[in-house]
Specification:
By secondary structure, the chain is of the alpha/beta class. It is 39% helix and 15% strand.
Amino acid sequence: MATEVYLVRHGETMFNQLNKVQGWCDSPLTVKGINDLKRTADALSQVYFDNMYSSDLKRAIDTVHLMKDANLVSDIGKIKKLPEFREVFFGTFEGDDINQTWDQVAMAAGIGHEDDVTKIINQVGLHDFREAIKKADPRHLAENTEELDKRMVRGIQVLGDLTKNEKRVLLVTHGDFIKTLSIKYWNRSDGKHDIIFPNNGSVTRGILHDDGQFEIVDYNVDAEKL
């Protein structure tokens, strides 16, 4: 059977608030983040889910438990954590100022000083943007296009195996991961240019088909509007 997947972005964190790069590094949810998530959880409280899943990073785990505790119609057991759905890895840039990081990436991409990530992506394309992050990273640890794409594809395969008998699931993951997944699997994206970054607590809805194909059908939606 096809599985409906509600991809929820975690709530605002301290690093989000401080404008710091946050990939595999973690920081706690803020009070605002928790309050925003309560609105998302309340909006989804009457939606039946066969299961709930999460990235294995703490900000996502804390978020999925808020969703689980508020849901009045689902019987969810232990949450399975999926490392495939971690945020994009930014290597040595983890914890650095976001604008300073993008400026270094723009320089590595050969376009001069620029700290607007959308302008950088739209000028060089998403593929070269990821390559520039790895190039600019002093230790070259950041995920490039091939590494991230392989992880996304593997994540869809893992999720497909887990949800063979599940009609609707909720999965808490991360902003850049959701955005990159949607650029790849949403028919309103051309696969190259940037799209709006998903809000904390927003819902992106996908369909995982019987044949393993995945598509995004709704992107960055406030839960109240679903």
